[in-house]
Amino acid sequence: MIGVMGAGAFGTALAIALGKAGHTVNLWCRNADQARDMAELRCNRAYLPNAPFPESLHVTQDLALAAKGTALLIAVPLQSMRAAIADLGAPSAALVACCKGIELHSGLGPTRVLEDTLPGITSAVLTGPSFAADIAIGRPTALTLACADNVTGAVLQQALTTPTLRLYRTSDTVGAELGGALKNVMAIACGAVIGAGLGDSARAATMTRGFAEMQRIGAALGARPETLSGLSGLGDLALTCTSDLSRNYRLGLSLGTGEKFDPSITVEGAATAHAMLRIANEKGLDVPITRTVTELLDGSTTITDAIDALMTRPLKEE
């Protein structure tokens, strides 16, 4: 039995994929009206209306029930995850964070937030290049499962892999989390480049220098280089920086065009940029793209000035 906490697009998609693979899945939904609607219609019409629920997927508002079994997949935004899991107590299931980012006030990644909130639990993070709609309808998807405990990681890898969802395992939670967090910042930058009409060549340059920045940050914070070169880093970067389905990329587009962006849409890259810039300043790291994205978000620079600043940086070897 597997639980999924959070009935947004990604949580619902994971629940559907695992249910289709034969697991009994309890999908926890906070909102009573939404839970009742999904239970009656056997789909999540708010996010994935064309992905019907398998018979083994059950919608519940009983968090204790969802927390029983092999794993509880926590698919809520990182900035609200601490509050969401506060009432879990001491779950028997391994907790798997299915969110990306850096907590704004603490500077912690998902597994550290879990462990800080619920000391003594076993935690992991599921991350990598994926869109919920692809997972829900069974398109082949590969993700990274990072768990510091190799035994638990192997159990989770076996349990959560399905015929259409392939998981690659690592013990490098720092690298996996940084890749998933920082690629969102770079996606905002790439969206701004395209929104400003600078073209695909400029986007390619932004992605490449953004990846170099991710590697520089990773090296300073203890990530393994091969992790950032894998699915959770380079793979997710390639997807998020090139697709209109990415909320972070769409936010960047709005910054580049000067159009308003819907404030009700959760965009983890915005909080991550601010949190990462604070960490970089404390450690003396050179993060020009992260700094520029933060300034664009704050309105302390314009897209024209940002481009000029980046293009006139001192020349150096690659």
From TrEMBL:
The gene is gpsA. NADPH binds at F10, R30, Y47, K100, A132, R247, E268. NAD(+) binds at G6, A7, G8, A9, F10, G11, A132, R247. Catalyzes the reduction of the glycolytic intermediate dihydroxyacetone phosphate (DHAP) to sn-glycerol 3-phosphate (G3P), the key precursor for phospholipid synthesis. Its EC number is 1.1.1.94. It comes from Marivita geojedonensis. Substrate binds at K100, R247, N248. It is found in: Cytoplasm. GO terms for molecular function: glycerol-3-phosphate dehydrogenase (NAD+) activity; glycerol-3-phosphate dehydrogenase (NADP+) activity; NAD binding. Sn-glycerol 3-phosphate binds at K100, G128, S130, K183, D236, S246, R247, N248. This is Glycerol-3-phosphate dehydrogenase [NAD(P)+]. GO terms for cellular component: cytosol. The keyword Glycosyltransferase does not apply. GO terms for biological process: carbohydrate metabolic process; glycerol-3-phosphate biosynthetic process; glycerol-3-phosphate catabolic process; glycerophospholipid metabolic process; phospholipid biosynthetic process. Belongs to the NAD-dependent glycerol-3-phosphate dehydrogenase family. It comes from the Bacteria. The active site is at K183 (proton acceptor). It holds the Pfam family NAD_Gly3P_dh_N. It catalyses: sn-glycerol 3-phosphate + NAD(+) = dihydroxyacetone phosphate + NADH + H(+); sn-glycerol 3-phosphate + NADP(+) = dihydroxyacetone phosphate + NADPH + H(+).
